[in-house]
Records
---
Amino acid sequence: MARSSRTVRLLFGTTLAGLVAFGAAPAQSQETRAAIEAGNKQVSAAFAKGDAAALAALYTRTAEVFPPGGDVAKGKEAIQKMFQGAIDAGVKDLTLSTVEVEQHGDTAHEVGVWTMKGPDGAVVDHGKYIVVWKKEQGRWKLHRDIWNGSTPPKP
Amino acid sequence: MARSSRTVRLLFGTTLAGLVAFGAAPAQSQETRAAIEAGNKQVSAAFAKGDAAALAALYTRTAEVFPPGGDVAKGKEAIQKMFQGAIDAGVKDLTLSTVEVEQHGDTAHEVGVWTMKGPDGAVVDHGKYIVVWKKEQGRWKLHRDIWNGSTPPKP
């Protein structure tokens, strides 16, 4: 079945690109989008510093993160531990680019794309994500966070 | 058999239990959650029948799907093509289990877990997803859809 899964991913890999070229502008305030983009810059900065505690601090108290290849990380302690694992594994240069933000009161969902670079500055992986943000004590924080990679697995 | 029961235990013992045990009940109407759960059953039924057109019809006109290992599928035609690829690769027995629904007017986001079984009924893969649903012409449809697998990559 590993073979079938790989085939599935390969076939998925043949679908069209164009994530950044989306048309319709969804409901959002520019202020909220700016706050989310600033939050994403803080994510990148924390990875660059290798600071898993700073990463966890960007999440709500009841946040859940859904990493590929692992189970849910629930709550700040588990989230910090998971990101420490990513940092230890060499994740350092991560860029998050917002494609879409749709706000509903103190909740917003964001669609975006991520790019990871290696020590030589070359892109080593890229993909997309959905984050549900919540305003907690006046500050937008990541509340639900899932992503995957777009690179087809090697045959 | 030993392997599949271990997988089942991993799924239900860790992933699902962990998600279900999450305390706070988010804002939702029971009606909306029921509609979303019914929509998920339609997804499973369409996979079981190998009907990619029926799958695509469950999505909004401006839907976007973010499959692992591939780029975004944007719009019904691209979504149908992507699911046809999955069906052709053998995806047939897919179960979606809602963990959380949070509704904001005609938008809702769902967190859930998925299980894929092989022809012998054994679980071959499992993971989690976030779907943003939109009420379109009075009917809840999938609007943004991303998932990943929870099985760690083989060393």
Note: The helical segments of chain A are 2-12, 30-49, 52-56, 76-88.
---
Amino acid sequence: MNWYTEQWSQNCRFSIAYDKEIYSEKTAFQQIDFYQGEEFGTFFTLDGLMMVNEKDEFIYHDMIVHPAFATNPGIKKVLIIGGGDGGTAREVLRYSSVEEVVMAEIDERVFRLCQQYLPVTASGVEEDSRMELRFEDGLEYVRNAADQSFDLILVDSTDPISVGEGLFTTEFYNECYRVLNKDGILINQHESPYFAEYAENMKKAHRKIKTIFPITHVYQYHMPTYPSGHWLFGFASKSFDPLKDMDANTWNDFGIKTKYYNTDLHKGAFGLPNYVKEALK
Amino acid sequence: MNWYTEQWSQNCRFSIAYDKEIYSEKTAFQQIDFYQGEEFGTFFTLDGLMMVNEKDEFIYHDMIVHPAFATNPGIKKVLIIGGGDGGTAREVLRYSSVEEVVMAEIDERVFRLCQQYLPVTASGVEEDSRMELRFEDGLEYVRNAADQSFDLILVDSTDPISVGEGLFTTEFYNECYRVLNKDGILINQHESPYFAEYAENMKKAHRKIKTIFPITHVYQYHMPTYPSGHWLFGFASKSFDPLKDMDANTWNDFGIKTKYYNTDLHKGAFGLPNYVKEALK
């Protein structure tokens, strides 16, 4: 048995058994490794950090996509930044009301390899006629995008190191604000409160977003293969409030079957522990 | 650097660095080991499974105690089954309205060693005049207890193996029902939904409790050092509903400062993911 091991902090490690490493490549942007094992199925890492595995990808992808649609069921134009595995696009495309999805992923190899090795997330995405795939830097993409061109931006990024770094900057959040419609919503990968290094990134991101958007929340979910299993998304918005405006009936009328998300859990996800609220102050 | 490693499933491992093992003892009931390290402080394991560490014990102890008090602020008589580290008793004793706390812990050595090595949870418990410490089997204790003698039972047990096994039986839950007052609440350590073996125990416990109590819920919290970080308590009750009857104002009037629990999070904790609801059906 082989073990993929991730250092969650200097003093904490998480390991997953795999049968074989099925692919490895160093692209211009990062190191990509695909593994296959019994319990977690196929999984891949970027620069040695767990990104997606077949056992719990549904949790992350439910939670990055559905809370925004339950808050504003009228979303039609969506921009995905990152998200190269395709899982976020897959969930967005389940809404037949969505007309246009742009996905700006810096590293085309991530997407191509997921098409080959991880069809559970990547399959069908490129084929959908509403989809525009752009293999370019997300920060560069929003810099050049027209004002108010999207209802929703989903930042499905790595941690703020290497290729993910620009997606945690004030400039990036400002550009997101600009390209969002007057009712626009920004969801961003918001790190985690438990281990010090991740908590620092969480605080920094929140501080920046708070100065730009009038409505800012953070919500949580249980993602066992990410450090500490306690992971966050940011919910920033120009007009919609994810608690006051969430419309359970309308969302349930979409008829989208989910394995993690539901509208009760939606409300609960915003109920953060005191130590997290304190850190976000 | 030394590593304490716990097998979360056949294919998943969690490891914590420690500087030294500070104490080790095989009692009549179990293997007890105390470690000390930088990030997690002092921690101890029973039969090689993480029980309590200084970094996140506050999460578990907040969540086993406070939801019941926010649902019924009139709780006066409390029975703790297990809980040898003292952390559950510590939180209960913060309510000046509580008149009597019985703690039935099978292994006195756990409590004595925590008094010595883990004062953060055990200190002050024995000295409180409202406290009755009984070092005996929890199942045996409830068998012999009088009808309707407690307002609240907190089952702070290990997993359903070795000494914890009896605390997951129908007989035990029946006895709990009998010794609870007409408004009584039972909170029990309810395992976890993510890894198969734990999920099996979760399902079994819920099936049994549902046949006995008229009101049964399961609630969740983020406990990073327990397998998957997604951990559950059961909330079973004769009359109080933890969502309808939770009184935020009254609980906040207690003025109890908590690092994890708050009344918004209380409501959210009962919003389970679909895959967990499905498993509990």
Note: Chain B has ten helices and 13 strands.
